[in-house]
From TrEMBL:
PROSITE patterns: PROKAR_LIPOPROTEIN (PS51257). This is Uncharacterized protein. Keywords: Signal. Residues 1-22 form the signal peptide. It comes from Candidatus Tidjanibacter faecipullorum.
Length: 286
């Protein structure tokens, strides 16, 4: 879950036709705002379509940064950055406030909402929603998944409880010594799978807002070098928004010789929040 906060790109949510770009009244807090925050990660569960091994846990990593919004911030889009100080390699971390651009914390607060991942996390609409990005990327191996989108809440003085905002599709792939350089999942403009989403921290509901780079209907694995498929499954994972993906969703495998092999879903499949959906093993044969 690595992210360099200096490279994050600012987004303007007030131009997205979204409500709540400012709070009308200043809220009075009951406890001082801390410069150190603790945060834990709830682990995703596994939905068994086919048997599989337990997933690699989601851990905090060195350099992780979370975005925090306090209920007493006078502007509903205010974001404060906290960077992991201790707890790398575990599910419980301590984060220290980063004073980017002279950022000033409110004096007191009653509650907070927090987000992880995406080019920017911005809270709005009366402290109940935020914006997160679903990456347009497929990862080889669960431990290579970066920036798994999460949202969290906490009452004053309590640790932040982060939970997964989206789900994961596990795609095991075999082949008879076939070398592949790319995998593209395409929902063919049926269900948005990548881009910017609203996340309601109270209900966990996600709503598509807009695409970013590339298509909103595709996620892609593009290896730096070709991967040779064998009888032993190679595991690929796609972080996907919650929803039912229709029959007709395709996986296109690009071979090292430039040819392609297309596999088409014969029935719908459903991705649930904070769950790993094990899809049937796909055999890629020339």
């Amino acid at each position: 879950m690595r992210k360099n906060p200096m490279a994050w790109i600012a987004m303007l949510v007030c131009g997205m036709a979204l409500s709540g770009c400012a709070q009308s009244e200043k809220t009075i807090g009951t406890m001082p705002v801390p410069t150190l925050l603790s945060a834990s990660i709830a682990q995703p569960t596994r939905t068994e379509i086919v048997a599989g091994q337990n997933p690699h846990p989601i851990y905090w990593e060195v350099g992780d940064v979370i975005a925090v919004h306090f209920d007493t911030d006078t502007d509903a889009t205010t974001v404060h950055w906290y960077q992991l100080q201790s707890g790398a390699g575990t599910t419980n971390g301590t984060f220290a406030h980063l004073e980017y651009g002279g950022d000033t914390l409110p004096a007191t607060y009653n509650s907070l909402i927090a987000g992880f991942s995406g080019y920017e996390t911005i809270s709005f609409n009366e402290n109940t929603e935020m914006v997160l990005e679903a990456r347009s990327e497929i990862f080889m191996g669960l431990d290579s998944v970066e920036e798994f989108p999460m949202h969290g809440t906490a009452a004053a003085g309590a640790p932040i409880a982060f939970r997964c905002s989206f789900g994961i599709a596990h795609i095991p792939v075999t082949g008879n010594n076939v070398s592949i350089t790319q995998i593209t999942m395409d929902t063919h403009e049926e269900v948005p799978v990548a881009g910017i989403f609203n996340v309601n921290v109270a209900t966990d509901a996600t709503t598509f807002v807009q695409s970013t780079a590339g298509s909103a209907y595709q996620i892609v694995w593009a290896g730096r070098q070709a991967v040779t498929l064998t009888d032993t499954p190679t595991d690929f994972y796609g972080v996907m928004p919650v929803g039912t993906y229709n029959a007709g969703t395709t996986l296109t495998f690009t071979l090292s010789n430039g040819s392609t092999i297309v596999k088409t879903a014969q029935q719908p499949f459903t991705v649930s929040r904070a769950q790993i959906l094990n899809l049937p093993t796909l055999n890629v044969a020339q």
